[in-house]
Design brief:
heterodimer; A: 40% helix
């Protein structure tokens, strides 16, 4: 038995762990990210001469259950054909039984990286609304994401916004014949529990990422999760966009008002965020589409459903919205007064 | 067929085709037990020897005796049959047993020199000692981490040996030679030989080199996972050890 150096050992480990694409039309370029169940690689589609991102099941995790989950994940994404959701191009199995699926390689930055560039609030709102629209599309197709966070939202070089990582998404209307089919389970790095990450998602199991997770999801109430759980997570992302910091983990207390951390934001924006992050799901927006509509109203300086304005605020918003018209009227009145005054003399 | 598993054809559970030695070591059949024990011994004797040398500051002669005695006692007294996968990995269990054994021997200071009917294993202690002298342990590495590191090294070395045998037996000697030249090259240089140079050296075309290497790596991957499945008791333990073995941790 010949001794193997550390350097060679690392190389041999790579040989075993890296996917063998030799039977496919892809060639491996480099590893992009690792998740609970799979690793995402940058690869080249040799036939079409383009780069793709390929998620491959980890070799250590290959079994019938994980294979089924990966295929299911690919199918969920494939059914969600929307500009805000990364399209799946291909799905297949490698010679070592690892399931993979190829998807569009998105060039750009994650929302948390985008925020580091300190973009104006209006741009942040537009990006956030685009993310809400993608999630709203999924909700309309009875799919909830369950792991929405800035790290799973990409902003592309040409203004596009894409919601990624549907690995723990759940189909709400799916007839439950097998618990493992109904619920996909994968712990995120920040998740603090010891649940078996490939076991069935039973009631009481915590999945997702704590800081952006709804209270009911944090309590492991899997059966209670619906679109409003995603709305809470979107509210947490909105909180991050308004304050540049992630919300504290939900401990049954209401979240700190974003306005208390960033006085520059309007009461309406603050109210939208707090409504989305209500502890009681009944007090939240019912779907991401409703939240998106309120974000649109914020962008258009219209009254939002989450906040009842007083007369002065209404007037102030009207003035803000119509200041050019107001200036014109004022200029006209001043001219009239000047004309009247000069004609009398 | 399950509609969710029909992509790519029917599949079996991978790669647990070999029976786990950890399970087989409990067998009432002496031959099955002996084979299982040999599998465990092959994977663990070297990490055990090095662990005794490093953690217990034993001389090489003492470490040799203790390693022999530990495995002989383990076989006689069915140490490994008491393993419970719910409590710890087999690797941790074996290391704990080993530490307990050495501590007891040290306490008694009356270590019985085994002979006569005691089982004696043919182990290459000289080779293990040379490895320790030539490649000393990284400073600040805990005995536990060192044991794990040496266990990984031992498992990969065993896999390479098995690969060599399989490829030779199946008439694919050139495949293994290519693998040895490209993937096992230990000449100390960081720059690896190119496929083109390999093609020239072996008188093959580039595509053939590529295909041969891919096939050999595929076989190597299979062997590594087979070896690992042999020395883990449950699928969960296999998965945990595989993640650790391959460095698949969340980034």
């Amino acid at each position: 038995m010949k001794w193997i150096s550390d350097q060679r050992l690392d190389h041999l480990r790579t040989i075993v762990a890296d996917p063998d694409f030799s039977s496919t039309k892809y060639t491996l370029i480099k590893e992009l990210a690792r998740g609970g169940m799979g690793t995402v690689y940058l690869a080249k589609d040799v036939e079409l001469d383009r780069q793709v991102a390929i998620k491959v099941l980890n070799i250590a995790d290959v079994n019938d259950d994980t294979r089924r989950r990966m295929i299911r994940e690919a199918r969920i994404i494939a059914r969600l054909e929307h500009p805000g959701i990364v399209p799946v191009h291909d799905v297949g199995t490698l010679p070592d039984d690892r399931v993979f699926y190829a998807m569009k390689f998105v060039r750009g930055s994650r929302l948390d990286e985008y925020i580091a560039e300190n973009p104006p609030l209006r741009d942040r709102l537009r990006k956030f609304q685009a993310a809400c629209d993608a999630v709203a599309f999924a909700h309309a197709h009875n799919v909830i994401h369950r792991d929405l966070k800035p790290q799973n939202i990409m902003t592309g070089s040409f203004g596009e916004v894409l919601v990624l990582d549907w690995g723990i998404a759940k189909i709400l209307s799916e007839r439950v014949t097998d618990a493992s089919e109904a619920d996909t389970l994968r712990l995120s790095p920040n998740t603090k529990n010891n649940a078996d990450e490939f076991g069935d998602t039973v009631h009481g199991t915590i999945i997702g990422t704590r800081r952006y997770m709804s209270p009911e999801q944090a309590r492991g109430e899997v059966k209670q999760l619906d679109a409003r759980s995603d709305v809470y997570s979107l509210g947490s992302v909105f909180y991050f966009l308004l304050t540049d910091r992630a919300p504290a983990e939900s401990d049954g207390e209401s979240t700190v008002s974003p306005k208390s951390l960033n006085p520059k934001i309007t009461k309406a924006a603050d109210a939208v965020c707090r409504k989305a992050m209500s502890l009681n799901p009944a007090n939240r927006y019912s779907t991401a589409a409703e939240l998106s509509a309120d974000i649109g109203r914020l962008l258009d300086a219209e009254p939002v459903s989450a906040y009842r304005e007083n007369v002065f605020e209404k007037a102030g918003r009207w003035v803000g919205k119509n200041r050019f018209l107001l200036l014109l009227v004022l200029a006209y009145l001043l001219m009239r007064i000047f004309f009247i005054f000069t004609s009398r003399r | 067929m399950d509609p969710d598993t029909d992509i790519g054809g029917a599949h079996h559970k991978f790669p647990l085709t070999n029976q786990s030695a950890i399970v087989a070591v409990r067998s009432s059949d002496t031959h099955v037990r002996q084979r299982a024990f040999d599998t465990i011994l092959a994977s663990y004797w070297k990490p055990a020897y090095k662990h005794i040398r490093l953690k217990w500051h034993a001389t090489n002669e003492d470490a040799k005796d203790l390693t022999q005695e530990f495995f002989a006692t383990a076989f006689e007294k069915d140490y490994f049959a008491g393993y419970d996968s719910k409590k710890a990995s087999f690797q941790t269990f074996l290391r704990t047993c080993l530490d307990g054994f050495v501590a007891n021997q040290r306490k008694a200071e009356t270590r019985l020199k085994r002979g006569g009917g005691a089982q004696h294993f043919a182990l290459d202690f000289v080779g293990a000692e040379d490895e320790m002298v030539l490649h000393s342990a990284t400073p600040n590495l805990s005995p536990e981490d060192y044991f794990h590191q040496e266990w990984v090294r031992s498992l990969f070395a065993l896999a390479v040996d098995t690969l060599r045998v399989r490829m030779t037996e199946s008439g694919r000697t050139t495949h293994f030679q290519l693998f040895e030249s490209y993937d096992l090259n230990e000449d100390g240089s960081t720059a690896r030989i190119s496929y083109k140079a390999l093609a020239d050296r072996f008188g093959l075309d580039l595509t053939t080199v590529n295909n041969y290497l891919a096939a050999t790596r595929r076989e190597f991957r299979k062997i590594v996972l087979e070896k690992l499945s042999e020395i883990t008791a449950t699928e969960e333990e296999f998965r945990t050890e595989a993640r650790s073995l391959l460095g698949i941790d969340l980034k």
